[in-house]
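User: Assemble these into one structure.

Assistant: Restating your components, then the assembled model:
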Amino acid sequence: MAWDTEGTRRRLKEAATAEFASRGPDGTTMARIAERAGINKERLYRYFGDKQALFESVLTDELAKLAAATPPPGGSFADIGEFAGQTFDYHASHPELARLLQWEGLASGTPVDQANRTAHYQDKVRAVAAAQRDGVLDDDLDPAQLVFTLIGLAAWWFSVPQIAKMLTGADAEDDYARRRACVVRAAQRLALPPGRL
Amino acid sequence: MAWDTEGTRRRLKEAATAEFASRGPDGTTMARIAERAGINKERLYRYFGDKQALFESVLTDELAKLAAATPPPGGSFADIGEFAGQTFDYHASHPELARLLQWEGLASGTPVDQANRTAHYQDKVRAVAAAQRDGVLDDDLDPAQLVFTLIGLAAWWFSVPQIAKMLTGADAEDDYARRRACVVRAAQRLALPPGRL
DNA sequence: CGCATCTCCAACGTTGGAGTTGGTAATTCG
DNA sequence: CGAATTACCAACTCCAACGTTGGAGATGCG
């Protein structure tokens, strides 16, 4: 049988992504990853180095997917609610990434790819500021703070799901549509001029 | 020298709180906690049981402190902005709490002290629902979702401080007053009837 | 074929950390 | 005082998981 080294790599990385997302860097064992992939543990070390390097490799891959999937800015902000709704959708459909980023954020140290992410956020802030000048958005709130709050509006549900469940009494899947509607509505109330509500 | 068992307990718990908040349950070692407190490791096990029990004890304490510091329901919600502002203040002076809650959210398993917390949240939801019926608060949003979102408005800044910094370009301390004002204003826009803004 | 190189793995060495134990000093009570 | 109880700790056991190794099969090349 011919070797399938790329397939082996891929299966190992998929298993690693799932395990890291589920249990975090400290809670994940290399043996479990290998077992989940059906590959011997030694392959992990040969292909990816040690555990830390494997985690960074997984995170880098997921960030690349995010960058590829993120639509470029420039859209209108008239329907600011949909912006928040799409952020909500993205988190809902990429639970592994959200959890990986949370774990990465909780670990002390500088965020990965800080420069690019800062630039990306600043783009959004500038676009919001322009929309405020045009009267499309209310200028009640500082643009940077508004962007930050809008992201939080959507991401908060995934950041502390246990609190969401205690408050609403519903699971994330059952409550998806209602939660999304709430995010959209809240974003509109925060950002739109009173007249456009 | 007389025994100071309460002092020992307290020092151990303070050390455990700091370590857990900083490194998470898996990243924290019992030996480090003991060393930080200047107390022998065995005291941890005698007083608190195993690591899991210690973590739950720490989190329960922090939640109790938060509940005690949050104004009891029944007060008027006309100044809903101040409710959010006080939540913000609390997190600002207890930065460990947000991180502990995030780690709890990432860990699989049932939340700590679920019954009490659920009851506490339901109290808040009922109070908000009543205020909505009275017209003090807008009934645009579901009361449970509104409470969840208001908590998020305040806590989000402390959940992802690195994103806050990337967006605002300022450190938490320098930006405290502006951030608090933003939280208060956002809470008002979310919860108050348009006429009362 | 003979040799080098690559893929793969079972079994191993080692370490770090959870949880325990046996013993000592302080305190209380009769 | 003396016995019982409690607070305390150094040193220990044990295990889980990281990372390695030596060797066995598969492939390629001259």
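Chain B has ten helices and no strands.
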